[in-house]
Amino acid sequence: LIVMVCIGPAISGYNFEQMDTSAINQKPSAEHWFGTDSLGRDLFARVWQGGRVSIMIGVVGAVVASVIGCIYGGIASYFGGIVDDIMMRIVEVITSIPYLIVVILLSVVLDSKSLGTLILALTITGWCGTARLVRGQILSLREQEFMTATEACGISVSRRIFRHLIPNVIPQLIVNCTMGLGSVIITEATLSFLGLGVKFPF
Question: Which residues contact 24 (CB under 8 A, 6 or more apart)?
């Protein structure tokens, strides 16, 4: 799918916006592999062009949510105590609100006219799961010998978090980010179906 998203529009021979009034609503053929729509546009080119948008939104949305969740969970778990309690209660409050409702409300309020605002709406609550995952991992890593050594060496707190703890969580983050890719794409498709997603002609 990713290969076809990259090369599909190029091998179709048609622009995704190109209209041909003599080829309206045609069935799949050697000339138009997926047929044409009601405006005579080649559906093969349009499917893969739309795939590019979905993949881009999915990747950017999943990566941004992972970065935010990683930083938030890392800070909460490292400092622990009252800081951890307050930060995790905030996560629980955000998680208790249905994700799709929050995204729909944000899309309406922001009146998204660009992909940037749509990605913002999709990632505004999507980082909570990553924050909990990172917190759990760092709580166990924090008690290991190499962290005691960093404290004994007088390494700064920010360096301990970003150079010693978070790199050890990256394998789990990659898996989490990959699994979140599909849910971001499906949510974006749901918003588009409701008229709140990617705007015409993309």
Answer: 36, 37, 38, 39, 40
State the chain's maximal CA–CA distance in angstroms.
77
144 DSSP 8-state letter: S
- Smallest CA-to-CA distance from 169 within 20, 66, 85 is with 66
The string of DSSP letters for 12-49 reads H-S-TT---TTSTTPPS-SSSTT-B-TT--BHHHHHHH
**Block mean pLDDT (10 aa), the chain, length 202:** 87 84 87 88 90 89 89 86 91 86 80 73 84 88 82 82 83 88 86 78 65
Query: Dihedral angle at the C-alpha atoms of 116, 197, 106, 72, nearest 10 degrees?
Result: -50
d(CA 173, CA 34) in angstroms, rounded, equals 38
Residues in the chain: 202
Q: Report the first-to-last Cα separation within the chain, whole angstroms.
A: 18
pLDDT at residue 202, as a whole number: 66
> What pLDDT is attached to residue 113?
62
CA gap 82, 181 in Å, rounded = 33
CA-wise closest residue to 196 among 128, 106, 63: 106
Q: For residue 52, how far is the Cα from the chain centroid?
A: 14
The candidate with the shortest Cα–Cα distance to 25, out of 40, 13, 15, is 40
